Amino acid sequence: MQGQQTQTPAPDGYWKDAKGRMVPENMIRPIDRERDNLVRALVKGAQEVSEVLGRFKGRAFGDIAAFVDLSTEQYGAALGGKKGNLTLYSFDGRYKVIRASQDKIGFDERLQAARAKIDECLADWTAGARPELQVIVNQAFDTDKSGQINTGRVLALRRYEIQDERWQEAMQAIGEAVQIVASRSYIRVYERVGDTDQYQPIPLDIAGA
Prior knowledge:
Number of helices: 5
Order of helices and strands: EEHEEHHHHEE
């Protein structure tokens, strides 16, 4: 299985603890043995489910791609919207399957130039005249624990109709600084709720189950 690393097994009569030390088996408390058994059983089950989901995901993407090719071949019109987003329904409408892509965006070095322009504006405007905007700007450029900037807050700055030329240049720089840093595709499966027009997801993860 990918991601697993081979570990040197403990010699007979010993267990290896979290620090790599060899502990005689007869010194291990029953509760520690039960905990170890429970964790290993759950991990084994999770690994098996992960493998099943991995196979399902691969088959689902492959089967949908083959269906799209078949539809295009027969009808001459490509299925799917922007970036290949696609929704398929069963004949009776009870089920639907969504294939979608989601881009993760970030900013390049032009974001720093935009921040400098904004700081010029804030420094020149009358002190205290726009305290709310000062707070909004500072929050927009705050980073989280991993050092990442909240892209939504930064992009939201462009909604403010401020005519200062430097502000306008900063907003343009923000727009040009946007970069797609990752793209993730996913499959979601839904079942219709009774005879309504509402659909509920069929959970494919532990959190949603």
